[in-house]
Automatic annotation (TrEMBL):
Superkingdom to which the source organism belongs: Eukaryota
Organism: Stentor coeruleus
Protein name: Uncharacterized protein
Biased composition (Basic residues): 348-360
Coiled-coil residue windows: 168-223
Disordered: annotated span: 311-360
Key words of the record: Coiled coil
Length: 360
């Protein structure tokens, strides 16, 4: 987060500097125009300009323009890095937020499903234990009945003739007692049968309940899978939205970068044009100074201007020669101005001038 705050502060400072840059450039241009006007007004008494100072000023201007271009490139690089870091931070924040929101819902669903599954499993285990206990009781009763039937058959097969008359009565009483025991065993057997049927019904009910529990578990599993799919779809849609936002930010950044590069190209062209214009002005000022300082050249210039200003008869067969088409010794054609001509006329014609015809 600290890195993001630093990038935002750097970006704000860069935009403030970028907004103030055209104002500073305009102020510099106004100062330069005022300086040129002052130099034009003081044309009769021009200052002494040395060649070294001109070279130093041009070099300084060139270094200043290169420094500004380098500074703009650095600001563009910082903007790009800040945008990339901002996009990464936005993506991470959105991913973490969605993850936290969906994690809470997933944990609640998982907790509810776990509790229901635990309760159903516990009921199932208790029913299985009860059913196994009833099966064990039924097996013990079956063993008891088998043992009673074996005793009854053993006593029925006994040879009563081998017994004596004294023991016959005892055996008879004993048989009666055994019959009573058999009747009691039959009663118990009937009771066990009824219990067995009841246990079978309870076991069938328990199996039905187990089937119902399994169906409920399957339903919960289906709902859980549907909720999971819905959450996955929500996460996918959120990721698509984030990617679309990133693509939009990236396209906006590319448009901004292209606009800045075009503006930088236009500014470099303007600077080159202004440098050429200032260079021409310096050359003209230097030529004017040499003309004004040299009496011979000044008189020649004055006579030439006077000749151009005086009307001369033109023969009808000869073509008319304009003052702007007069040629010098070097073959360069340029208009010649009077020292008494207004400065406004000179400034309007200065864009069409070439090298001066008078060389020191």
């Amino acid at each position: 987060m600290e890195r993001q705050e630093l990038n935002s502060s750097d970006e704000a400072a860069m935009w403030e500097e970028f907004d103030n840059y055209p104002i500073n450039l305009q102020q510099k241009l106004v100062k330069l125009s005022k300086k040129n006007k002052k130099e034009d007004k003081s044309l009769n008494n021009p200052p002494k300009i040395e060649h070294k100072t001109m070279i130093l000023s041009s070099e300084l201007h060139k270094l200043n323009s290169e420094y500004r271009v380098e500074k703009l490139n650095k600001t563009l690089e910082r903007i790009r890095q800040a945008n990339e870091e901002g996009v990464k931070q936005i993506k991470i924040v959105i991913h973490n937020q969605t993850k936290k929101e969906l994690k809470g819902t997933m944990m609640n669903i998982h907790r509810q499903f776990q509790q229901e599954f635990y309760m159903l499993k516990k009921d199932k285990e208790s029913m299985f234990e009860e059913l196994s206990a009833k099966i064990r009781a039924f097996n013990t009763l079956a063993e008891y009945f088998v043992h009673q039937n074996f005793i009854e058959e053993e006593y029925s097969i006994c040879d009563f003739e081998s017994l004596g008359k004294d023991s016959f009565e005892e055996e008879k009483e004993r048989i009666k007692e055994l019959k009573k025991l058999i009747d009691l065993a039959n009663i118990r057997f009937e009771a066990i049968k009824t219990l067995n049927t009841a246990y079978k019904e309870e076991a069938a009910d328990a199996l039905k309940r187990v089937d119902n529990v399994n169906e409920e578990i399957n339903k919960i599993r289906v709902t859980h899978n549907l909720a999971k799919k819905n959450l996955e779809n929500i996460i996918g849609n959120r990721e698509k939205e984030v990617l679309n936002d990133v693509q939009i930010i990236r396209s906006e950044y590319e448009d901004f970068k292209n606009r800045i590069m075009q503006e930088m190209h236009l500014r470099t062209l303007l600077e080159e044009r202004q440098k050429l214009f200032i260079k021409n002005l310096y050359g003209e000022l230097k030529n004017a100074k040499t003309i004004l300082q040299n009496p011979t050249l000044r008189m020649k210039t004055y006579e030439k201007i006077r000749e151009t200003l005086t009307p001369t008869p033109v023969e009808p067969n000869l073509p008319k020669i304009l003052p702007s088409q007069l040629s010098t010794k070097d073959g360069d054609s340029r208009p010649v101005y009077s020292p008494f001509e207004p400065l406004s006329n000179r400034s309007t014609k200065s864009h069409r001038r070439t090298k001066s015809s008078f060389k020191p």
